[in-house]
## 1
Amino acid sequence: MEQNIETETVQTQDETTAITQAENAQTETEDQTEQVENEQKSEKDAETQDNTEQPEKVQQEENLQQEEIEQKENVQVKSNGKSSLTYNPVSVEELVKKQTVAVDGDETVRASPLMKENQPVEFLDENARTLHEIFLRGVKQSNDGPCLGHRPGPGEPYKWITYNEVLTRSQHFGSGLLHEGAVANPDQFIGIFSQNRVEWKLTEQACNSYSMVVVPLYDTLGPQSIQHIMTQCDLKIVVVDKNAKVKNLLAGVKDGKFAVTLIITMETLDDEAKSLAESANVRLMMFKEVEEIGKNNLKDFVPPKPSDLHTICYTSGTTGLPKGVMLTHGNIVANVSGVYAVGEKTFITMSSAEVYISYLPLAHVFERLMVAQMFYVGARVGFFQGDIKLLLEDVGVLQPTVFAMVPRLINKIYDTVWAGVASSSVKKFLLEQALKSKMAKLKRGIVTKNTFWDKLVFKLVFTRLTKCTKILINTPS
């Protein structure tokens, strides 16, 4: 009993000490901020008085004074004796100017400064003008390094296949498709009805290398939306991941809603799927079976032209029937080139050392663009396990350097952090004070990661979520 009382007393003392340290740190931060602001105010007042007394100063001296003021505004706020990063308003203005320029002096019409003679930049590398060529560039940039990775199960490490292995397997699968009736031209549409996984990208790369067109279907589509896409694109060959989707498609065929001749599945077929396929007169094949057939009947690549259709990308159907957008290889390459060029001129530089986690639906064009960007620089792409509840575990194992996020995920992380401190008044107080301090700095234009609060509070979140991440991208859901 006495031991319990002593333990509780020590814990209370520790909590009191933590609160005291937090309050002192907050006061110190506020004092530093006030001191910086007072110094700036005094300097500006002195400058105003000096200008009043000596109106005859030459323009050269005024420019020199303005230069000194701008330098002093770029103040370094210190925490625990170490200088933190600062946000210089002048440099921000320069950064904004680099993003767009006024067209013909009209500030309401903006264009990329990368444009030459009012012509948009379609590509940066003459040898990378299609997605087939972008992947070949990735092979060289990576020095045949790791390309696609997946986790076989919870608790297991990522397993990787190299760029050349992806290229070889894509050639095998593409050759298998041709052997089974597909044709190597942009009139051939191949459906993909699957979650993100290695086989998804192998299928797409096979289409890219043999001039076929990818038509992805969202994992969450209902029967009406599926029927709409299947009939509008007249899809005869569809690659799926699970038996449930095989049965879904077969039911549509049997009911006369659309026609399919070949369904290729990544999962081992069950007896029910085989029976349904037989009654619907639809051929079923395993993904590996098609690869093996292609390996034994290898065909040379039939590369597309930049103007050839690459994909028909449909919306998710949340506002009515899905709407299809036709995108060429040139469209995708222009986007990838633009992002790369802007990154080189700012701070979003990417290289073959990058690691990207793919969990946003590949049926969405944003995720396709992100993966194409990784291929362009020869980087790695690791897939999540397919369960969004395990995403943070996947992130912890993969340690991505590039992470695309949506508001829904950010809100989930936010709620998780607050739920974690709800049972402790001390932790809750510390988090509140940390947020208050961080927001005050952001409003003043100061961006920093090594204050007292970063080390005491935010480090726990960063360590789990962004230990290696250098680029976080927020995209609409």
Note: DSSP finds 16 helices and 17 strands in the chain.
## 2
Amino acid sequence: MIVAVRLRAMRCDGRVARDRERWSRGYGVALLRKRESAQQATYVELFFDLVMVFALNRLLSSGVADLEVPGQAPADYLARWAGLGRTLLLFAPLLWTWTITAYLTARFDPRTPALQRSTLVAAFAVLIMGTSVPHAFDGAGGLSFALVYTLNQVGRLLIFVYIIGAHPLGRLYVRATVWLAVGGAFWILGGLTTGGAQVVLWILAVIVDFGAARLGWPLPRLGRGRQAVWEMAPHHLAERYQQLMLIALGETILAVGITFTTNKDRPGGYESLGLLTA
């Protein structure tokens, strides 16, 4: 009995040691795309794009509602332009979430379970962000939008920093994580406020997110550089863009078709023109 217990303990210790060595070498390196990796998008990526189109649809609906300000004269364009600006401000983090997700699935093999779980978590985050859009500037909705966005962006890159080990990509992910955390601080601070302060803080957050990426996420002793960021599977990324556009177009045609069929008037008005345009 004692011998069996000791043997089992030795096996467990050996397994732990092998796993520790495996992670120290960078388990995530095995997840990187290879030349023979398939270029087609996966069903998980398709699901993520569907959720993203839902969030964009919610954002568009909220933007249209802001343009139709109650009690405002048609000549008063100030409130309308403010609503358009808020819509563009919320579009930026959604676009950046999709971009980072597309980059990760173009750099790593999206058919591996680790990448599929990461993509599903990102889809869930986008779903929460989309439902928070209508109330993003009037209280709790803004905080939930900012928290989910920041946790998703920073959290998944932290995981990739850990699993990539000593691979040269580790420096890139450390730099990106730090700058996304800085931008996330502005997003969360903005979510805790309302009014003009919230808008200013979120504008600063967008500047940090996109500006740092444009400069190659520079950090002391870790350097900077953007070339390695875009060394990925170009055909896969092109298919992702095509897939997103097709889903968005299909959703638009469906919405116009429903509006057209539920209209009791005869065809010939603006609805027909919109259907033809779609």
Note: Residues 187 and 202 are 6 Å apart (CA to CA).
## 3
Amino acid sequence: MIQFNCDGSLSTTTKWTIKNCTSTRCSFEIVLNEKVMTIYSELYIPSRTLDYGVYQLTLSVTMIDSPNLKASSSVYVRITAT
């Protein structure tokens, strides 16, 4: 969870990025279709949107009044056949 502790405006922008991971690193950013909204704090990815593999999902939060104040958090997911 990302939390800001400050006296100024708490207005923020959010952005999700998704990278495809290989065995050594996660460097290939995935461009999703316009149906996947990446500007909200929650991310919903419909089934069959991502191919099988490992992905790094990163949520970045930036203060609108102070763009230098940023935080991000990542999670790794594996898409497998069921």
Note: Residues 15 and 39 are 5 Å apart (CA to CA).
## 4
Amino acid sequence: MDAWSDIEVELIVAEYFSMLSKELSGQNYKKSEHRKKLLPLLNNRSEGSIEFKHQNISAVLINLGQPYIKGYLPRFNYQSILDDKVIDYLIEHQHIEEQFKQFAEGDFVHPAIRKAFHKLLVEPPSNTQLVEEPVAAYTRSLSENSLRPYMEASGSSGPLARAQR
């Protein structure tokens, strides 16, 4: 596969920061939708190669001491052009630095997530029958011929005979 062109790298960096901005502000987003939106703009790249490049961008951000998208664990073997394009993006979009600052200082507020726990509760089923394991009757029948006479086999000088003296 050919190396990523300048335009491809600029596009994927912009899309990455779009997702990162949403994540830092607590907005919901779907990575798969962003990936699918990006696919037709790139030169025959697979979804896997886009994922990998997103992980490369995470590595660049870590090297710069910045937050990255959760779920895109960093992969540090990336093109040097990626450093330049990420830095260019940060210079051109300085508003994201405020989000980084809020993230680092913990000043951001996530939207309230309300769980309707009452919707999870249900009445127990009526006419419930208890299910139990059947009890197996187990009896052991020993016959005189089923036991080996170990005392006789060891004789009167064996360890069992000595222990009984």
Note: The radius of gyration is 35 Å.
